[in-house]
Amino acid sequence: MGTGMELVEVQRDASERRVYLDHNATTPLAPEVAQAVRDAMCQAWGNPSSSHPTGRKAKELIGSARESLARMVGGRLEDIVFTSGGTEANNMVIHTARRHFHESHGRPGDSWGMPHIVTSSVEHDSIRLPLEQLVKESLAEATFVAVSPRSGRAEVDDILAAIRPTTCLVSIMLANNETGVIMPVAEVSQCIRALNQRRAVEGLPRILVHTDAAQMVGKGRVDVRELGVDYLTIVGHKFYGPRIGALYVRGPGTTTPLHPMFFGGGQERSFRPGTENTPMIAGLGQAAELVSKNWEAYEAHMRDVRDYLEARLEDRAACHPRAVHSPLISPGLLWEGEDPPQQPIYRLQATLQHLQLLHPGPRLFRPSSILLSCGIPYNVAQNALRLSVGRDTTRADVDLVVQDLVQAVAQLEQDQAL
Fold first, then answer.
1. Which contacts (CB < 8 Å, 24+ apart) does range 157-160 have?
2. In 168-277, where does DSSP find H-type helix?
3. What is the value of pTM for the model shown?
4. Distance CA 200, CA 316 (A)
């Protein structure tokens, strides 16, 4: 994330295991995933486009992984397009929406004007920055809907109010990577489906719906049929898979438009040409299989440990929790901020030094833009820690982290008193 709010690792001495609480940034490879990658590298090294047995074996592995991804999100195997990661998938959606607008409703400079895209003010940079660049180049218009200071959500009525006659895409993340707040994507999709029926009669462009589900896959139920979206972004390294991704597209090229950003050998039905990365795709498929079989257990465990972490922090008064018990908070995430009316504001970088956390120092001074967008005061955002638990995080890990946090705060109070 790079904002300086992540609690990355704690280790007291070489004899103790490290406690990793930054699973929203990335997760380790599951052992089964690592084995799948190794097996594919050794046994399916052929070119999937080749017709000989070695190539066919690689192609079969890719097909199996595609089926696993589809099953994980409730789609069809033909709806899955493999990408290099979430950033490429998100950019592909934006590129497609803009191009589809022009192909369906004229060219730039005509009476239709520029395509318009609606998103939230707390989206990942892989959504925000491409849109800002398009606006800068006068290639599109964008509205960044502010989230509610009370809920942290982009509310349905505010999203709908931002829609214009030229709107071609609404992109709202499923769960926020910093606050854990779950967005009302299903409700937005339902409203836009009804709106599209009226727009079709009026000759207005269809509004496509996209959600970046990077922070929800593997932590809770994700079903594209229930969400009703046209596109959904999947990121492997957020659910114990490799650093590649995939894009779910509801009927790519038929029901839902999908335009390539690259041109080459025709792989991925020419939507994303380039020789497939078979080992990483095999690993992604294995990670998806684990989620399909175990997501309820994963969710229950992470929710339990997260709630325990919150309770322990409250007991020790180390911080003042902002994320509370709520079904609207993604399991596995808790972020903490010091509340100035109750306690002095201590600089995050000093706390991190006392905790001996593994984090590059120069980036620690910049507060999170997402927290600022949620209405969090600047000095509170600057002194926030994001703690995100994972499948293997234990209550013993939590006890160690809380103890170190309490000691760090006590030491800072002592230092300030001198």
1. 159/118, 159/120, 159/188, 160/188, 160/191, 160/192, 160/195
2. 185-202, 224-227
3. 0.89
4. 58
